[in-house]
Specification:
Layout: E1 32-33, E2 43-44, E3 51-56, H1 57-62, H2 68-72, E4 78-82, E5 90-94, E6 102-106, E7 109-110, E8 131-138, H3 142-145, E9 152-158, E10 165-175, E11 179-190, E12 193-204, E13 219-231, E14 236-250, E15 261-277, E16 280-294, E17 302-318, E18 321-336, E19 340-357, E20 360-371, E21 375-389, E22 392-403, H4 407-411, E23 422-435, E24 439-451, E25 454-457, E26 469-472, E27 477-490, E28 495-508, E29 511-512, E30 519-530, E31 533-543, E32 560-570, E33 575-582, E34 601-609
Parallel strand pairs: 6-9
Antiparallel strand pairs: 1-2, 3-8, 4-5, 6-7, 8-9, 10-11, 10-34, 11-12, 12-13, 13-14, 14-15, 15-16, 16-17, 17-18, 18-19, 19-20, 20-21, 21-22, 22-23, 23-24, 24-27, 25-26, 27-28, 28-29, 28-30, 30-31, 31-32, 32-33, 33-34
Length: 610
């Protein structure tokens, strides 16, 4: 039974599968998706109103890019910007909204950083290694997940085997920029449960982060996860998940100082008990997450954030209705050289999934969050999925959301403890049409607006610095656009064409949101090339994107085209060799003004299963 999974800091190492995935992100009718209330009662994608893209393990392995953010950017509605190469600060965006509006989970653990300027997750060190599944749930999900879910949710599960007994996989890879990576994953599975462990290690000399400098900025990281669950009886299951990440990144501190090293240590754990009783499935869980970051040469040298969460969810079928309900308590703390603060939030929530006919599913969700500091927020969501024909699904969603002011925005020297939450309204309408088992096209129109914005205001005086403060400012952020995607099978299913296009109009009162492409096009082909040889080739073209106001005048933010190639050859039933080439045509571009992006890079690898 699939649970909500959380994304923690950065699996490393790449492995390319010996076979291209059969479960593709566009084959939505075969995938089961979960939500905050349906973790105990998964739903087929064809019967959910949400817009969801999924990447399964083999699809992740076959993708020719190393960083997960690069792979996610091939999905409609997803883009990113990065302040350099692997490990550098990377901001993911869903429908034009950045990571401060995205909830992120790994194996059930909320891994957004409570000590960040905004409570958000840095995708910079995260690669595909050791991952088994990634769900990208788009649109406002605050009625399901609470704060930081206005743009959507990235929900990640680490890899584990379905084979009974002991099994494992080892992947090693080496390539450009003196990059070396390795991943070990093992699972022990019985009829009553499983225990899985993954260990990833990556080392790279990297590239020069800052444009105009030729000193390479290296990155190294170790990431480990452990998950397990056991059926104590027919009605009781106990389980846990844990993660640990240790990373070191060289940085360019300024245009005239290319020396500097930052350190990051992240730890998380979750335990849960599931009980089937009184006609309902119940889950009680407790999770902790700690993020420690150090910048010995920085203005602020230490950043420590902690989160503790106790949660209960119950769900059951009542004829044509599935009813879910629950509550959770979350406490977050922050401690830096000069800042300390904490906040606790209690939430109650419920969802009813109605099936008035065989072809119509309706979901009504409601949640109330009550914070010690900024008061209460009530959010709701209505979603519908209508099977207009056996091959056609129409989806519609309307939802409200909120982003709580971060602890830094409230308690730092530039903070204001009286800040209120940002509030949002999101709408979307989509249609999916299937042509046989392997061909599909999708179109989704979306609209989101956010009010009560929190920004740094140089004229604000509440914090008393004389240089400005974080404050509630006038204005509305709006993002609207259209997502198109499709897949067409070739050669009796041995290969396939795929593509995605997103038009995004994202703006505030001051003008367009920076670093958000207005046009984002992906085209590719994948499948069997010859006996034992598989491959994938994709091209991504980004157009009409603007740099931020802080970018240097000679920045290279703008249109660019990237091509990536991945090949895998099965040496035997258990061993395969791989070749990846990123940025095949050596494009010279920037996604954040003044920060380099890697040129052409090639990697070779070996994978073995046992």
């Amino acid at each position: 039974m699939h649970r909500l999974l959380a994304l923690t800091a950065a699996p490393l190492a790449l492995s390319v599968s010996p076979a291209i995935a059969q479960d593709q992100p566009f084959a939505l009718d075969e995938i089961v998706v979960t939500g905050a209330f349906t973790a105990l009662s998964p739903q087929p994608l064809a019967r959910t109103g949400a817009t969801v893209d999924l990447l399964e393990g083999e699809t992740l392995e076959a993708a020719p890019t190393f960083a997960l953010s690069d792979t996610l950017a091939t999905l409609p509605g997803v883009s990113f910007s990065s302040n350099g190469g692997l490990g550098s600060n990377t901001t993911l965006r869903i429908r034009g909204l950045d990571t401060s509006y995205i909830a992120v989970r790994i194996d059930g653990i909320d891994v957004t950083d409570p000590a960040g300027t905004q409570t958000a997750f840095n995708f910079g060190g995260l690669t595909k290694a050791g991952l088994g599944r990634v769900e990208v749930i788009k649109g406002s999900q605050s009625a399901l997940y609470g704060s930081e879910a206005i743009a959507g949710v990235v929900d990640i599960a680490t890899a584990r085997s379905d084979e009974l007994g002991f099994s494992g996989r080892l992947d090693v890879e080496a390539g450009s920029f003196e990059t070396y990576s390795g991943t070990l994953g093992v699972t022990q599975r019985t009829e009553r449960g499983q225990l899985s462990f993954t260990l990833d290690r990556t080392i790279t000399d990297g590239i020069s982060t800052r444009a105009g400098d030729d000193e390479d900025d290296g990155f190294q990281q170790t990431f480990a996860t452990l998950t397990g669950d056991f059926d104590v009886s027919e009605t009781v299951t106990l389980g846990f998940s844990a993660l640990w990440r240790d990373a070191e990144l060289e940085i360019d501190r300024s245009a005239t100082d290319n020396s500097g090293i930052t350190y990051a240590m992240q730890r998380g754990g979750r335990v849960f008990a599931r009980v089937d009783a009184f006609g309902f499935d119940h889950e009680l869980s407790y999770a902790v997450f700690t993020s420690d970051r150090e910048d010995p040469g920085g203005f602020t040298r230490e950043f420590e954030g902690d989160r503790r969460q106790l949660s209960y969810v119950g769900t059951g079928d009542l004829g044509s209705t599935t009813l879910s309900f629950g509550a959770d308590w979350t406490e977050e703390t922050i401690a830096t050289d000069s800042v300390s603060g904490e906040d606790a939030t209690v939430a109650i929530f419920g969802e009813a999934v109605l099936r008035p006919t065989e072809t119509l599913d309706l979901a009504v969700s409601l949640r109330h969050d009550d914070s010690d500091d900024f008061g209460g927020q009530t959010t709701g969501r209505l979603a519908a999925a209508w099977q207009a024909t056996p091959e056609t699904t129409v989806r519609a969603v309307a939802g409200t959301g909120f982003r709580a002011p971060s602890l830094f925005e409230r308690f730092s020297a530039f903070g204001d403890p009286d800040l209120e939450a940002e509030e949002s309204l999101s709408l979307e309408l989509g249609v999916e049409r299937r042509f046989g088992d392997d061909n599909v096209v999708k179109a989704t129109a979306f609209y989101t607006e956010i009010d009560n914005l929190i920004r740094f205001d140089p004229g604000a005086t509440a914090c008393g610095t004389g240089f400005g403060c974080y404050a509630q400012v006038e204005g509305t952020t709006r993002t609207r656009g259209l997502e198109l995607s499709g897949r067409y099978a070739l050669a009796q299913g041995r290969a396939a064409l795929f593509g995605a296009y997103t038009y995004t109009d994202a703006e505030t009162e001051a003008g367009r949101l920076p670093r958000v492409p207005r046009h984002d096009l992906v085209l590719g082909i994948e499948g069997e090339i010859a006996d034992r040889l598989t491959g994938r080739f994709d091209v991504r073209h980004v157009a009409d994107v603007e740099a931020s106001e802080f970018a240097p005048a000679d920045n290279k933010v703008g249109d660019y085209t990237l091509a990536n190639l991945g090949l895998a050859y099965a040496l035997s039933d258990t061993v395969s060799a791989s070749l990846r080439v990123e940025n095949l045509f050596d494009a010279d571009y920037e996604t954040a003004g003044g920060f380099n992006q890697p040129g052409r890079a090639a990697y070779v690898g070996l994978s073995t299963s046992f």
